[in-house]
Amino acid sequence: MSDKKPSKTQVKARLPKGMRDVEAQELRALKHMLDTISEVYERYGFEPLDTPAFEYTDALGKFLPDTDRPNEGVFSFQDEDEQWVSMRYDLTAPLARYVAQNFDATPKPFRRYQTGYVYRNEKPGPGRFRQFMQFDADTVGTANPAADAEMCMLAADTLEALGIPRGGYIIKVSNRKLLDGVMDAIGISGVENATRRLTVLRAIDKLDKFGWDEVELLLGSGRKDESGDFTKGAELTPLQVRKIREYLSWESIALFRSSVQTHRQERLERDIEIAENLLGESDLIEAGLRELFDIEVLVRSAGYGHNRICIDSSVVRGLEYYTGPVFEAELTFRATDESGQAVRFGSVGGGGRYDGLVSRFRSQPVPATGFSIGVSRLYAALSHLGKIGAAKAAGPVVVLVMDKARVGDYQCMAKQLRDAGIRAEMYVGDAGMKAQMKYADKRGSPAVIIQGEDERAKGEVTIKDLLEGSRLSGEISDHAEWKEARPAQFSVSEGDLVAAVQKLLAEQAKA
Q1: Does the domain made of 24-385 have the CATH classification 3.90.190.20?
Q2: CA 250 to chain centre
Q3: Cβ-based neighbour number of residue 278 at 10 Å
Q4: Which of 87, 96, 307, 476 makes a 20 to 30 Å CA pair with 270?
């Protein structure tokens, strides 16, 4: 054991809380997933766009909690001009800034898709990170409910393209105007109640995760989690909480799930009447129901049944900027973990209409709607289903350096292989033959190229099949026998190097 003490200047290698490293296997599988989503979005006519990872804080708006120093919910800092800058917490607020800044140059409606990391300065936990990836599609510049219906159809088509079968997911739709009408009815409208309304939204948004009893605590005085941390509630009265529960259990809206195509208008008028009896007359609630009616007609006309897209009043979305229809993509298939326990993936995406977000930058109304996929959660679900794999890609063919005076020759061999489309590298370390072989093994290399003095004199190279060698090693126990047999190792002329490696890789692919 070494008595050497660590240097006082030595830095401890550690990840910041709520962050994670993503390694090669997952990155490759993730790329395949993102490419599939892009193909669907492109088919719908959306164009790609990329925006910066941080924006001026006032451009992002006050849709997450903040204080004088806006560090609750978002990561913020001051630049050299002493202006507050914040890491984007979603991809929608930066889009609103982009559209406003380029308003005259963009076609209306403006259709874009974007994928990228977003950042939340929130308490991390199992599966909950402060940096995570989203994949969005948005349509800006139209209030037509066809744009909202299209988002629901886009969500369904995307999940199916990724391998989620029908019956394994549901796109749930509601309307923020319904809940806004409920909050008006229970007396928490107005600017002075903005924080309470946001607390209510976030509490209801956790209904599927926590259940009603825990949500009721968040609507009331607050909730203490398993770690002992306390979350302050909305401080609603028991009567106000009861009205919200009645809304969430509003069975009449379930009529929209019916596949029956007749008497829709009668059902709509009945829903409006029931709402008035429950909460009194409300223009907001009536408008919300009529918008849902329009969406239902459009998606059914396009052939999307109630088993794919349905109306569900419990959908609220946790951000305050939504103004109309809201959507949520939920996975419903049954799954179990390694111990046999039931696993529920739940929501893997959502979105809605946000007609006021772009208008913050302009004097005119600019309606917009969008849908966002939570990439990490969906990736986990697809992996569990076996629809996408973190499969380990074959490593590169490694050209070993047997004579350091001939590095240029070895590099030339690696280039010949790369020029032929073969993944290859020359060993660039300083170790000897044994260590180079261990390096190739750790890299998952399918083969190594060897040319020592003997091979060079004959104008040959030796190719060692590492996959076959690994298999045969279990059949040869004697070291002398191994050395004599030199399993899975053969020589070819220098001019046949590329063809021989191509043949070997093709044979390995068939095995």
Answers
A1: no
A2: 32
A3: 16
A4: 307
Amino acid in the structure at residue 98? Y
Tokens of 503: 């043949």
Residues listed for the chain: 511
β-partners of residue 54 are: 87
Tokens describing residue 483: 């050395």
- CA dist 203 and 285 (Å) reads 20
How far does Cα 447 stand from its chain's mean position?
A: 36
Domain boundaries, the chain: 24-385, 397-510
Full 3-state SS string of 37-65: HHHHHHHCCCEECCCCCEEEHHHHCCCCC
Cα(157)–Cα(211) distance, integer angstroms: 29
Nearest 5 degrees, angle CA 357-CA 362-CA 368? 35
pLDDT of 314:
78
Annotated ligand binding at 50? The verdict is no
pLDDT over 90 (residue 480): no
475: pLDDT strictly greater than 90:
no
Binding site annotation covers 321? yes
Within 8 A by CB and 6+ apart from 341, the residues are: none
Q: Position 39: which residue type?
A: E
Is 90 annotated as ligand-binding? Answer: yes
- Rounded to whole angstroms, the Cα distance separating 344 from 334 reads 7
Structure tokens at 312: 């569900």
| Alpha carbon distance, N-terminus to C-terminus of the chain | 46
Q: Residue written as tokens 């997911």?
A: 169
**Residue the block writes with tokens 């914040």:** 86
Number of DSSP helices (H) and strands (E) in the chain, helices first: 18, 20
- Distance between CA atoms of 423 and 425, rounded to whole angstroms? 7
Query: What pLDDT, in 10s, does the model give residues 201-250?
Result: 888 888 877 888 888 899 998 898 877 788 889 899 999 998 888 877 76
CATH 3.30.465.10 for domain 397-510 = no
Amino acid at the residue 345: F
pLDDT of residue 67: 42
Alpha helices, DSSP H, located in 74-175? 92-101, 145-161
What is the C-alpha separation between 275 and 181, in angstroms, rounded? 10
3-state SS assignment for residue 140: strand
Can you tell me the distance from the alpha carbon of 201 to that of 92, in angstroms, rounded to the nearest whole number? 18
E strand map for 147-203: 169-175
Domain 24-385 identical in fold to domain 397-510: no
Cis peptide before 325 (omega within 30 of 0): no
Q: Tell me if the pTM is above 0.85.
A: no
Helix pair 283-301, 176-185: axis angle to 10 deg = 160
Binding site annotation covers 138? yes
What 3-state class would DSSP assign to 325? strand
- Asked if residue 309 lies in contact with residue 325, where contact means CB atoms within 8 angstroms, the answer is no
Q: H helices within 85-144, ranges in order?
A: 92-101
Q: 3-state DSSP call for residue 508?
A: helix
117 is in an annotated binding site: no
